[in-house]
Amino acid sequence: MEIVVETTEYDHIDFWRDYSLRRNWLQRCLFLIIAGLILSAFRPISSVYLINLLFLGIILAPLFIGIPYFESKKRIRKAYDSIVSPTALRMYKPFASGIEITGESPATFLRYEDIRQVGRTGNFIYLVPKFGGYYLLPVGCFSSVEEIEHFFRVVKNGVANTKGVPVKEPFTFKPGYLVAILCLIPVIGFFAGLVVLILGIVHYKDKVYIIMGAIGMLITIGIYGSMIYFVQTSGIVKDGFANIAQIQLNDLVKDIEFYKLQNGAYPDSLQQIQTKDSFTSIDDPTQAINGNKKSVTYQYQRKGNKYLLFSVGKDGIANTADDIYPNLSNADTSKLGFIRK
């Protein structure tokens, strides 16, 4: 059996893209699934959220799973230039102890024990010698599928018999450390750090890359953890929410009085003044900084033809000194149903 091969530069580029795409494809798919689960844990599941998550997955899947197609031309060129006469016409003839390669000057006999790895992608068979470079055989150079299988089996068995296949991944690139700069960006840095961490463990097996990914995730966690702590403990932030509550309470009085004009009586609860087109807010913003995950409305109680309305304030306890009431003049109070206590 003699295989005549003449490769072009495009064959080598297609090989690298094909090889890179098939490498670690399972890890890429698992990453997308895990990332989706992490995102879904941050907020309650709803139909709108699932649609947004699906849309995000549709965008990210081609980019992440097919990212080798955009692999740097500089890297491909570097690998391509490492071969002596990469486009030369060659004839490969396998024997019991190795492969005779003619068409080069001089001819080469590549012994199986000198082959670092033999492998196959969808469109190519590749041989990686221990002395560097690689030989590429497009499957189109074979006359039949049976001939492809026979050649690959003979060479692979020959290499295996000499125990010349100790390396799983013959083609490895140095990780792009500059990409890890994305890890410094809050929020984006968490997911970029997760990608860098996984690639460092699974693909590059590079300690520096792994550390950079972990640091990127910790930066986002640290920044947002500090922000949450600041919001919950800072007097400035609490005062800001108290000012918002004061403005909303003043507006609520107007809405409650308008409700009475329309219905002849004050509402039994604040929910009654909310309509589909209403911009009225009945949620007390001062409670968001007290760790309440559920919405807490302003304190409201109808008392006959009067009503009580206030915010429990920064301490979250009703009927204390920091309770916030609508800011109304005495003249206004006499015309309205609002009472302080």
Automatic annotation (TrEMBL):
Q: Which Pfam families has this protein been placed in? A: T2SSG
InterPro entries, per database record = Pilin-like, T2SS_protein-GspG_C
- This protein's name: Uncharacterized protein
Species in which this protein is naturally found: Mucilaginibacter gotjawali
